[in-house]
């Protein structure tokens, strides 16, 4: 359809393309072309050796493989490699969902205060999220029903810690329109920080009364926002 871009979905830290399932199903049912990628710092066999630049290269490669215009949707950490990698002129719009829309020279680690939060667990080159004191269902999935939250928590994987320490060298939101979805019941990403990133990036802000994972808890609302951004 000439008035529609292809939608590229980029997951956050410890997640995978699986997390977009409800959103992808709804978009495809409405006739949208959708691509969801697995970032290499979470899913590659050699992920311990990789960093944010490798994820950014994966985003750029996915964009280059799509014919026509692209709308990139990025969640949380996924906003970092998207900001670095979504520089192709074919990118029509970026939708940041509770995402780190950082600036040149910034890192995710510095943006959270320069010290790993106590729910990050660094073991050598890899990081995992959550423990008995900080269950993933409370960190990421607080507004899902228990069964859905347990399923999603079981899908989380380790990630290269290097990805959180590599600085951005390029910034896509300077030249590309963007939307920012603020998650108002987020247990790990303060609303005031999301508001500041949305304002600095010049994004059109939307607010959802959800946890850090609205693509699972309120997929219809997320689809509505993506559709508005993705139309040419």
UniProtKB/TrEMBL annotation:
Record-linked Pfam families: Abhydrolase_6
The keyword Hydrolase belongs to this UniProt entry's keyword annotation: yes
Domain named AB hydrolase-1: residues = 7-224
Query: Where does the source fall among the domains of life?
Result: Bacteria
Does the record bear Hydrolase in its keywords? yes
Keyword entries, A-Z: Hydrolase
GO MF, one term, reads:
hydrolase activity
Which InterPro entries does the record match to this protein? AB_hydrolase_1, AB_hydrolase_fold, Sec-Metab_Biosynth_Hydrolase
Instruction: Please give the start and end residues of each transmembrane region.
Output: none
The record's listing under PANTHER family reads: AB HYDROLASE-1 DOMAIN-CONTAINING PROTEIN-RELATED, ESTERASE_LIPASE_THIOESTERASE DOMAIN-CONTAINING PROTEIN
Provide the protein name: Alpha/beta hydrolase
Origin species: Microbacterium limosum
């Amino acid at each position: 359809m000439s008035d529609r871009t292809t939608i590229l979905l980029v997951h956050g830290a410890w997640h995978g393309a699986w997390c977009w399932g409800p959103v992808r199903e709804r978009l495809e049912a409405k006739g949208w072309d959708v691509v969801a990628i697995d970032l290499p710092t979470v899913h590659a066999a050699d992920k311990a050796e990789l960093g944010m630049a490798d994820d950014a290269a994966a985003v750029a490669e996915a964009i280059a493989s799509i014919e026509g215009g692209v709308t990139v949707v990025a969640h949380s950490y996924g906003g970092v490699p998207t900001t670095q990698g979504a520089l192709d002129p074919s990118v029509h719009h970026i939708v940041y969902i509770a995402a780190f829309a950082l600036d040149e020279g910034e890192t995710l680690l510095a943006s959270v205060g320069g010290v790993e939060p106590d729910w990050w667990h660094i073991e050598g080159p890899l990081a995992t999220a959550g423990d008995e004191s900080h269950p993933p269902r409370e960190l990421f999935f607080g507004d899902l029903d228990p069964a859905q939250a347990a399923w999603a928590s079981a899908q989380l994987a380790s990630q290269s810690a290097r990805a959180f320490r590599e600085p951005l060298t390029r910034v896509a939101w300077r030249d590309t329109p963007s939307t920012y979805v603020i998650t108002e019941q987020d247990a790990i990403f303060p609303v005031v920080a999301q508001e500041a990133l949305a304002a600095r990036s010049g994004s059109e802000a939307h607010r959802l009364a959800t946890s850090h994972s609205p693509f699972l808890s309120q997929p219809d609302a997320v689809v509505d926002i993506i559709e508005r951004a993705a139309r040419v």
